[in-house]
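Exercise 3.2. Students should predict the tertiary structure of the chain below and write it as structure tokens, then compare their answer with the key that follows.

Predict this chain's 3D structure.
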Amino acid sequence: MADFLLIHGSCHGAWCWRDMIPELTALGHTARAIDLPGHGGDLTPIPQVTLQAYAEAILDAIDQPVTLVGHSMGGYPISLAAEMAPEKVARLVYLCAYVPEGDLTLAEMRKRAPRQPLMPAVMRSEDGRSFRIDPAQTEKVFYHDCPDGTVAYANTRLCAQAVAPQETPCPLGANYASVPRSYIRCMDDRTIPPEYQISMTESWPATDVYEMPTSHSPFFADPGRLARLLTQIAS
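Answer key:
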């Protein structure tokens, strides 16, 4: 059985894995989630939230090698964590996530997508250091196929997202390359276009790429199926 560490995406926190942890433990795994700096219960001020701080928080939470799952924006910090300490990561799993490419920042990668469905929902702070997602649009971009009550649950917990980590490149080397990796595409994603998820992974071995017919939030839309798929990947 595997030990999973679950890493959330932009504006989210450990709370988004609420339904996943019991599904994974029911299958015999150990599973936990953390709040990255500035998210959930972590009160790190926005000016101190960096990509490096994200990666350090991940590594601080690991005592023995884990299957490290990163959702959406979480693809960047899990990659940097693997570069910094590959011995702590048994496998990387990108869940409809950005996979760092060269010296591109996450913001630059997002702009390379053929469509920008999230941007109309983005509300920038006055100082430009963070953004939030318009609560009236979260269902459309994140949760359109999720159970009743998901939007209300999430809207009370979604937080401001620091811009700095998304405008920081994530150069990767031999350490990162030594860690096995898998990708789960979400084919009804209305945040990261599915066709962009395909292009990010078109050169990957077919055995390392999986698909789910869900929105950007499969941990709410179909946690049982996602848990079974993660089991398959980890084994």
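Discussion points: The chain has ten helices and nine strands. The chain has one domain: 3-234.
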